[in-house]
Amino acid sequence: MSGCYPACKLTSYDILPWPGLDGAAEAVTNLFGRDHFEYIVLNQSLLEPTGQYDFIYIDASHDLDLNANTWNKLLKAGAFGPNAIIAVHDTGIWPGDLMPREWEGHRGGKLATCNKVPQGGVAHQPDEIKFVEWIVRAYPSFVKFDFVSANVIRHGVTFLQEKAEWRIDGKPV
Fold first, then answer.
1. What are phi and psi of 55, to 5 degrees?
2. How many CA atoms are closer than 13 Å to the CA of 159, on its beta-carbon side?
3. What tens digit of pLDDT does each residue of 104-162 get?
C-alpha cells in the first residue's frame, strides 16, 4: 500500500470474521487509515463489485462453480481496471516426497491418495487449479503465471492478466 498512489484503497472481503483476523484488519486500518483500507465480512456468493480494481486477490471458496460465478460478476461489473492483476491462491501442488507422514491423516486420511497429479504430489485445492484453467480457456485474452514450488510445500498462487500488446513510441514491439 505504501507504494500506491494517494487515492489507493484496499478492500478485503472474508466469509467469516476469523479469530485474530479482526486484529490484523484493525492494524492495517491503523497503518493506512480508513480511507485506504476496508475489511468486510461477506459471503462470496453475495459479492456485488463496485468500481475498478488494479489488483484482485482471490483466496476464495475452493469451489469451481462459486469461483466462476464470482469471476463472471467481476467481469460483468467492469471490475478489472486497465492492466489489472488477479491473483488466485491455493493453486499449488504439494510435492509428495516432501509431505510429512503425519499428513496422511489430513482430509480424512485421503490426502496421500486423492488429488494426485502426474507431476507427482497432491493438488492442495483442486478446484482452485481448475478455476484458473477454466479462466484461460473461457477467456483466452487472459494469461497466467503459476507461482508454485517443487522444493517446498506451499499453497501456491497464480497471477492472471489480460494480454496487452507492448508498444514503444506508438509502434508494436
1. -140, 130
2. 10
3. 555 444 554 567 777 677 787 889 999 999 999 999 999 999 988 778 878 889 999 99
Report DSSP state, residue 119.
Answer: T
Sign, Cα dihedral of 101, 105, 106, 111 = positive
DSSP state of 19: T
Q: How many helices (H) and strands (E) does the chain have?
A: 3, 10
pLDDT digits (tens, 9 = 90+) for 47-101: 888 888 888 888 878 899 999 999 999 999 999 988 899 999 989 887 777 777 6
Q: For residues 9-45, b (16+ Cβ closer than 10 Å) or e, as one string?
A: bbeebbeeeeeeeeeebeebbeebeeebbebeeeebe
For the chain, how far is it from start to end, CA to CA, in angstroms? 31
Question: Rounded to whole angstroms, how far apart are CA atoms 43 and 85?
Answer: 23
